[in-house]
Amino acid sequence: MKIALYMAISIDGLVAKSDGDSDWVSPIDSDNFDRKIQEFGCIIVGRKTFDQYQGELYPVTEVTNIVLTSNANAAPDSQNVYYVQTPQAAIKQAEMESHRQALLIGGGTVNGSFLKEHLIDEVYISLHPLILGKGIKLFENFEKQVELELLEQQTLGKDVLQLHYRVIK
Ligand SMILES: NC(=O)c1ccc[n+]([C@@H]2O[C@H](COP(=O)([O-])OP(=O)(O)OC[C@H]3O[C@@H](n4cnc5c(N)ncnc54)[C@H](OP(=O)(O)O)[C@@H]3O)[C@@H](O)[C@H]2O)c1
């Protein structure tokens, strides 16, 4: 199972302001993100991110939606949404749905949980030209050093740089 992380970040490594606002994410990156979700067919998302955009972006139709939460009983009555309690359970659920890859889509807490367990294989970072100053880090509760290899880079529109890395394990 390949797990690839896709996140939009500010140049100071934040994914959202403290109040959760991510209005600064460029439309061209959002389009690219949507395409990547369709390509992978399966997303893994933190409960806070899922709740914040529920009814607007999530659940994504015709895609397996796996939500990480400590309260798996709260699962909505929806065919393509699964609530799980650990990163390992998320991967198992994706495999049960016959997926060979899944896109991890944040937020920072879930990203940190997966990185801690060495479960992230690739990273897509869309670097946005702004400094947020204060907010949610790309990897919350994670303090170790991890080496990456740059696989490719592209510019999205005028000023968003997308970097695609492999995590060296
Ligand atoms: N810039 C971007 O590309 C981007 C992408 C996604 C999200 N975001 C932003 O990120 C913000 C949310 O990030 P966040 O870090 O606060 O929250 P989050 O990662 O979305 O969700 C955190 C929740 O996930 C569950 N969880 C995380 N790790 C777990 C583990 N190991 N085991 C069981 N449950 C686990 C817990 O749910 P329970 O509390 O239910 O137990 C936890 O409270 C939002 O404001 C969103 O806008 C930005």
Description:
- The protein has 169 residues and is of the alpha/beta class.
- The chain is 23% helix and 33% strand.
- An eight-stranded mixed beta sheet has the order 5-4-3-6-1-7-10-9, sandwiched between helices.
- The longest helix has 14 residues, at 27-40.
- The structure holds NADP nicotinamide-adenine-dinucleotide phosphate.
- NADP nicotinamide-adenine-dinucleotide phosphate binds at residues 7-8, 15-16, 20, 22, 25, 46-49, 52, 68-71, 85-87, 105-110, 113, 136, 140.
Give the ordered list of helices and strands.
EEHEHEEHEHEEEE
Q: Ligands bound here?
A: NADP nicotinamide-adenine-dinucleotide phosphate
Main sheet attributes: strand count, strand direction, barrel closure:
8 strands, mixed
User: Got a strand count?
Assistant: 10
Low-confidence stretches: none
Q: Based on helices, strands and strand pairing, what is the structural class?
A: alpha/beta
| Order of the strands making up the biggest sheet | 5-4-3-6-1-7-10-9
Distance between the termini: 15 Å
Q: Helicity, in percent?
A: 10-25%
What is the strand content?
25-35%
Number of helices: 4
Rg to the nearest angstrom?
A: 15 Å
How confident overall, as mean pLDDT? 95
Give a short synopsis of this structure.
The strands form two sheets. Strands 5-4-3-6-1-7-10-9 form an eight-stranded mixed beta sheet, with helices on both faces. The protein is of the alpha/beta class.
Annotation keywords:
4 helices; 23% helix; binds NADP nicotinamide-adenine-dinucleotide phosphate
